[in-house]
Amino acid sequence: MYIDSINIENFRTFRKSKNTFVHKDQDFEALEMPEPALPNINLVLGINGLGKTTLLKAIALAALGPSI
Predict the structure, then answer these.
(1) Residue 62 confidence (pLDDT)
(2) Which end of the chain has less neighbouring CB within 10 Å, N or C?
(3) Domain residue ranges of the chain, discontinuous segments joined by +
(4) In this structure, what are the phi and psi dihedrals at residue 2, rounded to the nearest 5 degrees?
(5) Exposure of 66 by Cβ count < 10 A (0-12 exposed, 13-18 middle, 19+ buried)?
(6) Is 41 strand, coil or helix?
(7) 3-state SS of the chain: helix, strand, coil percent to 5?
(8) Burial of 14 (0-12, 13-18, 19+ CB in 10 A)
(9) Strand partners, 8
């Protein structure tokens, strides 16, 4: 399973956010994006307190919601 994007609203530090990810099965020409050098790697970078862990928790809730 690949995640194309996740929309987060009113969850911990996020009020409204859309995060888009890349994966090897995407059609980059249709998205009008250059193909990345490493199409199967997504980096989440930022200083402390910006919501990196919150983003990962939101992805986990979206993927595992009913079982949590």
Answers:
(1) 87
(2) N
(3) 5-67
(4) -115, 145
(5) exposed
(6) coil
(7) 25, 20, 55
(8) middle
(9) 17
Under 8 Å between Cβ of 2 and 40: no
Residue 5, judged by CB atoms within 10 A of its CB (0-12, 13-18, 19+), counts as: exposed
* pLDDT band (50, 70, 90) for residue 65: confident
Q: If residue 37 lies in a helix (H) or strand (E), which one and from where to where? A: none
User: Which residues, in sequence order, are bridge partners of residue 18?
Assistant: 7
pTM exceeds 0.90 for this model = no
Amino acid code (one letter) for 16 = K
For all residues of the chain together, what is the average pLDDT?
86
- Bridge partners (DSSP) of residue 20 are 5
How long a stretch of residues is the chain? 68
